[in-house]
Design brief:
An eight-stranded mixed sheet has the order 2-3-1-9-10-11-8-12. By secondary structure, the protein is of the alpha+beta class. Strand 10 and strand 11 form a beta hairpin. It binds flavin-adenine dinucleotide (FAD). Flavin-adenine dinucleotide (FAD) binds next to strand 8, strand 12 and helix 7.
C-alpha cells in the first residue's frame, strides 16, 4: 500500500504540473501525537522531522506532545480536484453521464450496463462504485467483499485567516485537519463499520468538533459552513480490489481503496487502464496478485 501511495503522489505532482487544475496543493503533512514518544517512534521507523509541542502550537495544533513532519506527503482539496477533473474530461471530449446503474452482464465479449431504461452495450466496463461496488457485481455473481466505513466531514469558513500552517493527522483520534486555500478548514474523522446507515451523524459531528476544538487553535470561533458523511470502500484485508473480474472478458473493478481513495486513485486508474489496453503494467506482478479480484470467492 505504501508503494502504491508513493507512486500515486508522484503521478499527482506530475499531473498538476501539466494540467491547469488548481487543487489548493500543500506540500508536507504532520502526524501529530499526544505523546512525544509516539512521534519519535514514527520518525525512527518511517522517517520525517520530529516536532515538539511548541512547534506544533506555532502551527496551530495545541495540547499535543509531539509530531512528525513528512515532507513528501501532500494535501489537496478533494472538491476542487473533482471539479477540475470533470472539466478536463469534458474539454477532452469525454461525456459524463450521471445516473443509476443497476448491474452489469456480459454476452460473449460484449459487456452490457443495465440501466433503468434498458441495457447498453460497451467495449468494456470498470466498476468503480465505491462501497456500492458489490451491489453492481451481484448480477455477475461476483462478490468483491467491499464494506462501507462511515466517516464524517466538517467544513469551516476561515474568513481569510490562516488557522493551521500545515495539514495534519491527529493520530490518537484519527482526525484529519487541512486548510484549503484562504477560506476553508476541513476536519474529518470517524471510521464506523455500521453498513450504509445514515443515523447518528449529528452526534458523531458533535464529538468530532468537540475533540478537534481541543487541539486546533481558534476552531471554536470559526463558522461551520457545512458537514456531511461518506462511506469509504474497504475490504477485509484492507487491500484494494483492482483488475478483471474472474469469469468475465471485459468487466473490470477498481475499488477497496478505503481510507486512501483520493491518494491512490491515480495509480489505481493507471493499473486498470493498462489492463484494458493490454499495456505493460506500472506495477510488479506481486502487487497485481495482492490486489487481484480473484483472491475473493467468486462466481457461485
Ligand atoms: C470523512 C472521510 C475522509 C477521507 N479522507 C481521505 C483522505 O484524506 N485521503 C484519501 O486518500 N482518502 C480519504 N477518504 C477516502 C476516500 O474518500 C475514498 O477512498 C474514495 O472516495 C473512494 O473513491 P471511489 O471512487 O472508489 O468511491 P466513491 O468516492 O464512493 O465514489 C463512487 C461513486 O460511484 C457512484 N455509484 C455508486 N453506486 C452507483 C450505481 N449503482 N450507479 C451509478 N453510480 C453509482 C457513487 O454515487 C459515487 O459517486 C476519506 C473518506 C471519508 C469518508
Amino acid at each position: 500500500m505504501k508503494y502504491l501511495a508513493l507512486e500515486s503522489l508522484k503521478l499527482y505532482l506530475d499531473f498538476f504540473e501539466k494540467e491547469d487544475i488548481d487543487v489548493d496543493l500543500v506540500r508536507g503533512v504532520v502526524a501529530v501525537f499526544k505523546d512525544m514518544k509516539d512521534a519519535e517512534e514514527l520518525s525512527r521507523t518511517a522517517g520525517g522531522r520530529v516536532l515538539d509541542g511548541k512547534e506544533l502550537s506555532e502551527m496551530g495544533y495545541i495540547g499535543m506532545g509531539g509530531g512528525v513532519y513528512v515532507e513528501h506527503e501532500i494535501s489537496i482539496n478533494p472538491l476542487k480536484l473533482y471539479r477540475g477533473l470533470r472539466r478536463r474530461v469534458e474539454e477532452l471530449g469525454g461525456r459524463i453521464v450521471v445516473g443509476d446503474v443497476l448491474g452489469v452482464e456480459e454476452e460473449g465479449r460484449e459487456p452490457k450496463v443495465i440501466l433503468g431504461s434498458g441495457k447498453r452495450g460497451c467495449d468494456g466496463v470498470v466498476i468503480a462504485a465505491g462501497s456500492r461496488s458489490g451491489d453492481l457485481c451481484r448480477s455477475i455473481s461476483y462478490d468483491p467483499h467491499v464494506f462501507p466505513a462511515r466517516g464524517i466531514v466538517a467544513l469551516y469558513d476561515t474568513a481569510g485567516e490562516k488557522v493551521v500552517l500545515a495539514p495534519a493527522l491527529l493520530e490518537d483520534y484519527g482526525i484529519g485537519v487541512a486548510q484549503h486555500g484562504s477560506d476553508t478548514l476541513r476536519i474529518t474523522g470517524f471510521f464506523e463499520i455500521i453498513g450504509h446507515r445514515v443515523d447518528g451523524v449529528q452526534e458523531d459531528l458533535e464529538e468530532l468538533i468537540s475533540t478537534a476544538k481541543k487541539h486546533v487553535r481558534g476552531l471554536g470561533s470559526l463558522r461551520l459552513r457545512a458537514f456531511g458523511m461518506g462511506f469509504r470502500p474497504c475490504t477485509a484485508d484492507l487491500l484494494p480490489v483492482i483488475g478483471r473480474i474472474p469469469g468475465t472478458k471485459n468487466i473490470y473493478i477498481a475499488t477497496g481503496l478505503c481510507r486512501l481513495g483520493v491518494t491512490m486513485s491515480p495509480i489505481a486508474g493507471i493499473i486498470v487502464t493498462s489492463m484494458i489496453l493490454n499495456l505493460e503494467s506500472p506495477v510488479k506482478p506481486v502487487i497485481l496478485n495482492a490486489v487481484s479480484p480473484s483472491r475473493f470467492i467468486h462466481r457461485s
